[in-house]
Design a protein that fits this description.
There is one protein chain. The chain is mostly beta strands. It is 8% helix and 42% strand. It is built from 3 helices and 12 strands, in the order ββαβββαβαββββββ.
Length: 180
């Protein structure tokens, strides 16, 4: 699976260096000399020739990008790396790997929907669950609202099974009351 780790920003100086807008939580590990990235469009790869910190941001020089004009050509490109979504521990997940997982309610055994996205907030992250419109799911529940936000905490999300593509939730009372 390809994971987005940065977006290339403005050039810095005239030697082809660029500022990065990071989307990774480990830039010091990802951005080292010799590291290779896939450009999201898929038409090229970029290899880091040099990297330095400038304040709170990272400035990178890529091999073959040695002028401001060449740096401007790659501005806006999204850098990706290949990751194994199954290599994380039982308590750590790439959020992109959760998208599309079936969401099953433990209490009823019914599928309530699937993970549409994961929203990151300071207090806790939320799973945006696209609810199923199947009348048989959820004991005849009809849906006026087609989504619900489920806190991504251990007390609620009890099982995440990436291989079989589902997660099991113990929903708090009333969470689905607003949707029917």
């Amino acid at each position: 699976m390809l994971l987005n780790v940065a977006k290339i920003g403005a050039s810095v100086g005239v030697q082809g260096e660029v500022r990065l807008h990071l989307t990774t939580d480990s830039p010091s590990v990802r951005f080292t000399k010799g590291a290779e990235f896939v450009v999201e469009s898929g038409n090229r790869n970029l290899k880091v020739a040099g990297v330095r910190r400038r304040g709170t941001s990272y400035v990178v020089q890529f091999e073959g990008v040695d002028s401001r004009n060449l740096a401007d050509e790659i501005r806006g490109s999204v850098l990706q790396v290949e990751v194994d979504i199954f290599s994380e521990s039982d308590d750590e997940f790439y959020y992109a790997a959760l998208e599309g997982l079936e969401v099953r309610e433990i209490a009823t055994g019914h599928t309530i929907g699937s993970v549409k996205s994961v929203l990151e907030y300071p207090a806790q992250d939320l799973l945006e669950v696209a609810l199923t419109t199947d009348e048989s799911a959820g004991a005849g529940r009809s849906t006026q609202k087609n989504y619900v936000f489920v806190p991504f905490v251990r007390q609620i999300v009890r099982v995440v099974n990436l291989q079989e593509k589902y997660l099991e939730v113990n929903l708090p009372d009333g969470l689905l009351d607003e949707v029917h």
